[in-house]
Amino acid sequence: MFSKAALLALSYAAIIVTTVFGQQVGTNTAETHPSLPWTKCTRSGGCTTQSGKVTLDANWRWLHSTEDPNTNCYTGNTWNATLCPDPTTCAANCALDGADYAGTYGITISGNALTLKFVTNSQQKNVGSRVYLMASDTEYEMFKLLNQELAFDVDVSNLPCGLNGALYFSQMDADGGMSRFPTNKAGAKYGTGYCDSQCPRDIKFINGQANSAGWSPSSSDPNAGTGQYGSCCNEMDVWEANNRAAAFTAHPCTVTQQTICEGDSACGSTPTNRYASVCDPDGCDFNSFRMGNKLFYGAGLTVDTTKKFTVVTQFITDDGTDTGTLSEIRRFYVQDGKVIQNSRVNVPGMSSSLDSITTDFCTQQKSVFGDTNSFQDKGGLAGISKGMADGMVLVLSVWDDHAANMLWLDGDYPTDADPSAPGVARGTCGTTSGTPAYVETSAANAFVVFSNIRFGELDSTYIPIPIPTGNPVPTNTPPATIPTKYGQW
Is the per-residue pLDDT at 296 higher than 60? Predict the structure, then answer.
């Protein structure tokens, strides 16, 4: 629900390592993308393996002078004034280098399983990471979500309060913005072009130029700050979770590609103008705990977070076609050979039949929780549907939260609100549990594992048993009526 901008400056750099978005390409470390196979599925033909790769977000990479690799362009949370006197000169002077995925960033792949370690200590201390799934060495894989479904296995057993193992879609440019912005020489190969619904302003380079103008170092994060500009786009949070709480959230925007914003108002950067940007920062979210079922997700509960499980998300259209308009985002799980239906709403004032994200669900939720309905103001499901039709990039990350200690996901938030008020309690984590200073020490060895990523037609990724002749099940029939190899609901 809240900003992933905190992700953009979490790598604690040594003297020669920084964490920024760069535009030129360095030659000190060869960039070799780790392979991450995934599968594409149809109901009639089953699933076939795709030879995917991942690339590290540019913000975690070493950014240095094009003339002298021992000179950083950005150190701590300030720019090198000599190399970066203005945004254009900075982009020309600074080179982005290749990455040591395992050694520096704690990113490892075994078969189809991607492990993202929270803290890695090598020559420097690195915190968190973010990677993108690639179609080639120079372009991101673009997923068109309408009338499709995504499934993946996840292990969050080693991900405590205050951390977020996230899998989501962002409407980035396929080439990282390289063709639209010629001063971006690094492109998707080096993980450039990030955007999301928070219009984050701590991205160091946007649209091929440095975000150094008006840069203000963060008072709480020694590696972060905010610039004059932000980067906005549609965002579909399929999975934001730790072992105590989980949510899926749609964030529509009124723009249909990565778009720059300028200043507090246009970027929605402060509480007084939070809803002034082109995107919905809150989104419409489904968190089972927040929606009234406190025994659904967690250790030993219906979805048992001490063990691996499968997450299935379906993007249903109004006419059942790939060209229709998004009308519902449906979720269910598979664990221990059983399909688990998503929890139903148990909030006074809301219909108890609701168990997915629909316009009705979002309208009722915003009304009962007393939240601003920026979701509908920015186009609702129909708004984000346009981004899904054009294609979105798959993002996988692990991060902590310098802005709100992740309490919007796993605790009571806002912290000054009555926890018994509808929508305030989102999980069982204490209000002091997620401070970065604490989790970066106490949970340094935390990690999340994403594996067995499948994408394709509805009801194809979790392998339903063929329906007997004479008893057909329509494509969009809720999973509760579909017998599967894992048993009934």
Answer: yes
Is 440 among the catalytic positions? no
- Return d(Cα 461, Cα 154) in angstroms, integer: 15
- Does the pLDDT at position 483 exceed 70? no
Quote the tokens at residue 396: 């996988």
For residue 313, give Cα distances in angstroms to 155, 330, 372: 17, 6, 26
pLDDT tens string 54-107:
999 988 988 899 999 999 998 888 999 999 999 999 999 998 989 999 999 999
Q: How far is CA 9 from CA 129, 327, 408, in A?
A: 10, 36, 20
Q: Pull the structure tokens for residue 11.
A: 């790598």
Architecture of domain 33-57+100-481: Distorted Sandwich (2.70)
Q: What pLDDT, in 10s, does the model give residues 148-184?
A: 999 999 999 999 999 999 999 999 999 999 999 999 9
R_g over Cα of the chain: 21
Question: 31, 141, 149, 235: which one is catalytic?
Answer: 235
pLDDT given for residue 462 in this prediction: 85
**DSSP of 266-334:** HHT-SGGGTT-SSB-SS-EEE-TTTTT-TTSEETTSSEETTS-EEEEEEEEETTSSTTS-EEEEEEEEE
67 is catalytic: no
Token pair in block for residue 84: 């970066």
Indicate which residue of 149, 240, 328, 440 is catalytic: 240
The two tokens of residue 172 are: 């980035």
Each residue's pLDDT tens digit, 379-415: 999 999 999 999 999 999 999 999 999 999 999 999 9
CA 182 remoteness from chain centre: 27
How confident is the model over 138-152, as pLDDT tens digits?
Answer: 999 999 999 999 999
User: What residues does each domain of the chain span?
Assistant: 33-57+100-481
47-50 long-range contacts (CB < 8 A, ≥24 apart) are: 47/454, 47/456, 47/460, 47/461
The single-letter code of the amino acid at 79 is W
Q: Residue 27's pLDDT band (boundaries 50, 70, 90)?
A: low
Per DSSP, 364 falls in state H
- Alpha-carbon distance of 261 to 482, in angstroms, equals 46
Provide the whole-model pTM: 0.90
**Among candidate residues 11, 32, 397, 4, the one with its CA nearest the CA of residue 190:** 32
Tokens coding 96? 């982005």
For residue 479, the 8-state DSSP code is: G
What does the alpha-carbon distance between residue 73 and residue 424 come to, in Å, rounded to a whole number? Answer: 42
The amino acid at 1? M
Q: What one-character-per-residue DSSP string does 151-178 give?
A: EEEEE-TT--TTEEEEEEEE---TTTTT
- Quick check: 148 and 316 in contact, CB under 8 A? no
